[in-house]
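Example record

The entry below shows one chain as it appears in the dataset: sequence first, then structure tokens.
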Amino acid sequence: MLELKLGWQSLRNNKQLYLPFTLATSLLIGVFYIFQAIINNDSLAKIPTASAINSIMQVALVFISLIIVVFMFYINNIVAKQRNKELGLYSMLGMTKANLFFLVLGVDVCLFGFSLVLGLLIGLSFIKFVLLAFVKLLDLKLVHLTVFSGQALLLTVAFFLAIFMALLLVDLAKLSQVRPVELWNATKKGERLPKNSWFTKLLGLAGVATLIGGYYLSVITKPNASVITTFFLAIILVVIGTYALFTSASIFFLNLLKQNKNYYYKRNHFITVSGMLYRMKQNGVGLASICLLCTASIVALVATSSLMAGKDNQIKQSAPLDVSITSKKITPATCKKTQELAAKYKVTLINKKSQRISHLALANIKAGKLKISQDANTANYEVLTLPLADYNRVEGTNYHLKNNELLVYATDKKVKLKQLQIKGKNYRVRMLSEYKYRLGDVATLTGLYLIAPDAKRAQSLLNIPLNETYSFDLKGTDQAKKNYSQAASQQLRGRNSENLVTTKVEVSEIMNQFYGGMLFVGLMLSVTMLLTTGMIIYYKQVSEGYADRARFKTMQQVGLSLAETKQAINSQVLMVFMFPIVVAAIHLCFALPALASVLKLFSMYDLKLLLIVAVTMLAILIIIYLLIYSLTTKVYRRIVNAD
């Protein structure tokens, strides 16, 4: 058929438009298949953190799906706009709308077919390497994940088939509503000059106010149960503020530059400002999208990398010794069983520690008064008590306390207390800098350990009974220690689970899996967002290149040299595409306080580590961004014939 022949010719003649679209879509199809293959892998059900990892993966998949849908509609709109001139020519040469429908259908089917086949090949080819990385990050020793998943394949095909059907319907609907001459002139039609109206100014001010509101919420966020909700509200405000800022404040700024005659009526400035001003409405949305994608990718990487980097410290906090047993009463039978298992698995029990400690209680401290709280949303401390003799014994110290004195250890080093009132009684506080063998540290909030002169006072402080603990390290081979820990976890709990047994092996396994899964998701999300960012920048350069080609040719005919053309292009492109990365860096700076509060929920207290990770990841993002900018600028110059 003539339509199919012309469609194939169109694909060949417009490689600059269709090839990047096909490659980007194929990569997204591959990423989508890999996520589906992992989520639908039955082997994952065998690991302890399977449900948590699966939930994280599903949330990430929903986010990736939204990115894919928005990206494909955005890019398809640009591609369709560029091919309208070709369709208009065919229409004026005698082709009917029905012929054009079949031509567009043929092009879209070819694009879908190529993209789907290539994407599935990419997914099936790289799934093994990705699964190896997944297994390595989660430290899965005995789990063998299936490479091929028929269910994942069907879900991937169905999802992208639905997207391509929607794109095809949109293309055909637009085609049915326009006349041939409109198609021919569509690519020549630029954006209308945006007016510096009161509405634009009002929208700009609203954007700035919303952005400041999001920043404020991020800075004041506290590490309590409502931190996630507050953080998401801050994200929503920043998203709204960013779009308003880029679409309105940018127009206002460009109009200010235009009004400055000393600046505007210079050759390079005139070309840059006038060119940007006519298309700023389109540019504003695109640049805001680029900025937010960069911000989201860097925040995801910083959060997950910080968790992974702080994992060893958290393992040490959660399990200071290899095995810990907590019970109302540690019986001789329990101690005897620990020795029997040691003989059986050929390990030696060393560094034995025993102490009494209470369950944790939620509390608030205001104006030096400690009050027990039942509301996790308003509480800011998790408080535990223990006798001085037990602290001195496990830590090897020799502190002495009067009846009105307390030793206090806080997991947050910023906490400094001198006086503390509990149940109407005032205590003089002496802060401790170290509590190496602390137990019961649940780090949703700041942990506060109150050490009283004796067991009776330790129990009466919060009216919570004291539990007994027996902890020790293991000496032997790694395999022997692992075998002992697994046996102890099963056999020392007792028939009625009266003993709580915590082993460093189990804690390490769970944290390796959970944080490894988080890092894997963060990496995959970042790769997806950076891929879409690169493609958005590329197609913005392509669409603007075609729009600017005639303008630059005209200016070259009246005396603009090739060198001056290149200089004007570099100035314009640099001005446009540096805004998003600069604003993304500012977003990251204001996101760090909220991010630190969220990470405290996972016992990640090291602010220095968070800053190091943030600076490193931001530097990597800037390098990648500049590389994308450099490559796409060359494409722009080729289109306007400046190379």
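Notes for this example: The first helix runs from residue 2 to 13. The first strand starts at residue 323 and ends at 327.
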